[in-house]
Amino acid sequence: MYNSEEEFLKHYDSSNFEKLSMTTDILIFSISDSPTNNYRKLNEKLFSVLLVKRDTYPFKDKWCLPGGFIKIDEDLEDAPKRILANETNIHDIYLEQLYTFGAVNRDPRMRIVSTSYMALIDKNRLSDKLNSNASWFNINVMEDEKEISVYLENGTEEIKFKIKKTLKEKTTDRYKFEVIENDKLAFDHPLVIVSGIERLKNKIGYTDIVFNMMPEYFTLGELQQVYEIILGKKLLDPAFRRIISDKVVKTDKKQTGGGHRPSYLFKYKQ
Amino acid sequence: MYNSEEEFLKHYDSSNFEKLSMTTDILIFSISDSPTNNYRKLNEKLFSVLLVKRDTYPFKDKWCLPGGFIKIDEDLEDAPKRILANETNIHDIYLEQLYTFGAVNRDPRMRIVSTSYMALIDKNRLSDKLNSNASWFNINVMEDEKEISVYLENGTEEIKFKIKKTLKEKTTDRYKFEVIENDKLAFDHPLVIVSGIERLKNKIGYTDIVFNMMPEYFTLGELQQVYEIILGKKLLDPAFRRIISDKVVKTDKKQTGGGHRPSYLFKYKQ
DNA sequence: TTTTCTTTTTATCATTTTATTAATAACATA
DNA sequence: TATGTTATTAATAAAATGATAAAAAGAAAA
After folding, report:
1. Rounded to an integer, what distance in angstroms lies between the CA atom of residue A140 and that of residue B151?
2. Does B207 touch chain A (CB under 8 A)?
3. Where are the domains of chain B?
4. Checking CA distances to A76, which of A222, A236, B146, B216 falls within 20 to 30 Å?
5. Which residues in A lie closer than 8 A to residue B208 (C-beta atoms)?
6. Nearest CA among A134, A137, A185 for reference residue A162
7. Minimal Cβ distance to A110: which of B14, B104, B212
8. Is B95 an 8 Å CB contact of chain A?
9. A171 reaches B (C-beta below 8 A)
């Protein structure tokens, strides 16, 4: 019918195929300091995620991940970058594509497929003011063979949800996730959050991505806490130090005032 | 403006947002036997991918991955299942989402975002006849710090492409891939193939997915060959046997006729 | 029939890595 | 000055890994 690619494209009718909308959802993870900073209580580090309260339908007054529509003339990965720039003042943010969710009825408005991204940031680099409807939620995860329970709190509100996991194949560690309890999170965002936590848990073992969330100077105790929160288990001090010893450099700074032997501050070895 | 979610949805105008088309591309990997099966030459195992020759524009006469458009009323992951069913006669195929590619100009026709999937199958379960324009290509990969060269051949045709890799962040093992040589593959499919190989290379170490490509009975030498092809390096026999010893069961069957000590046949320990 | 060849399979030992326990160090407070 | 607390390191045991070599079993050649 056509004799060349040029000719074909000239006559191509793009309405031949069904069209849909795409959005992106961004899991922005960071590390927070515990609000209770008592005497003789370690400056506890917490793992947190940024959520936004919806002020319009659908899911009005529920919390969701920052996100938005992909523009027709915008590369897919430029959308999360644009939204991140809108939520923060930082430019060089660690960003990684997570998963694309595309169940037919995942959005009540219409058919929308959403590609989720995970961003890791050091909160200390943020200018203080967040967008008015955004808030950091500390993350607590309880996981066993069958379920993942996630508890989020920001000092005022609490969000809980539970996810059932069933092994997809005997040959993998892959699970099928299904939301079985959720009252305060919009869309399929519980799934996105859990996917991100799983990804991070997996990658913390063979990459250095965790340092994207750490401040410039930190103690090994703090770093170990972050590993422990994300992995959901306690680590032995000497083992942990062996593992990260070649990733960090000791500085001559010390963190005093803890009522005990002060710890040296370390930096990430670039 | 609206007093309830129902009311909002009733009046929702889905033409508010820009729409695009979505496709899926499926990397179907398997293991092939070497065509040269000489005396005293091990029955060599090769790693292969299924490609389809395009008979229409765009990219007429180029090779591409099996794929197609996502239907408006079809779950995202049902599309690759539908296409797999069309290409094979097998039902329970290992399928895993790989990555969503969404550069604005990745398709010359119009804006198309594509979610790629990786499928692993045991060729022995296929009925012999493939679709007429489909063909298995054996894969050879040469990788160093800066580049990945992939060489595909199906006995008749050869396809070569080269990809430059640059480290994205110092904190990860993540690379940015850029196609620098490619003459016979359509779209951004070189990127999809390389992403899949990297995923497989990574996952072979901590999952059992490789057994989805193995026949029911295999020798440890054959299994080791498959590991070696995918990892791109030689493994020591005793080390390999230690690693996989708890994943396989020895049967009382032997593979004789090799002019040397026969090897036992093993099965995957389900 | 015997020897040679090849590859499979197992054994052995050295080395490295990881796990566990315990000891020592340093600061803040009573 | 003694005590509590956490940081840091030392020391040892256990496990995993790496590397080499030896034994086993069949096919083919002498």
Report:
1. 47
2. yes
3. 16-209, 214-268
4. B146
5. 170-172
6. A185
7. B14
8. no
9. yes
**Could you say which residues 228-267 of protein chain B have a Cβ atom less than 7 A away from any atom in strand D?**
236-239, 242-243, 254, 256-262
What span, in angstroms and rounded, lies between the C-alpha atoms of A51 and A61? 12
**How far B112 CA lies from chain A's nearest CA (Å)?**
9
Residue A217: partners with Cβ closer than 8 Å, 6 or more residues away: A251, A253, A265, A266, A267
* Contact (Cβ atoms closer than 8 angstroms) between residue B139 and residue B48: yes
Could you read off the pLDDT of A162-211 as tens digits, one per residue?
Answer: 999 998 877 776 788 999 999 899 999 999 999 999 999 999 998 999 99
Q: Is A17 close to B14, i.e. CB distance below 8 A?
A: no
Q: Is A270 on the interface with B (CB under 8 A)?
A: yes
Q: Which of B60, B70, B110 sits opposite A5 (nearest CB)?
A: B60
Parallel, antiparallel, or unpaired for β B112-120 and B21-33? parallel
Surface of A (13-32) touching B: CB under 8 A? 14, 17-22
Cβ atoms of B115 and B75 within 8 Å: the answer is no
Q: Does domain B16-209 have CATH number 3.90.79.10?
A: yes
A62-106 pLDDT per residue, tens: 999 999 999 999 999 999 999 999 888 888 899 999 999 999 999
Query: Quick check: pTM over 0.90?
Result: yes
Q: Which contacts (CB < 8 Å, 24+ apart) does range A190-193 have? A: A190/A150, A190/A161, A190/A163, A191/A101, A191/A163, A192/A25, A192/A27, A192/A65, A192/A98, A192/A99, A192/A101, A192/A116, A193/A27, A193/A49, A193/A65, A193/A150
As its CATH architecture, domain B214-268 has: Orthogonal Bundle (1.10)
User: How far apart are the C-alpha atoms of B184 and B197, rounded to whole Å?
Assistant: 19
Tokens encoding B140: 């050879």
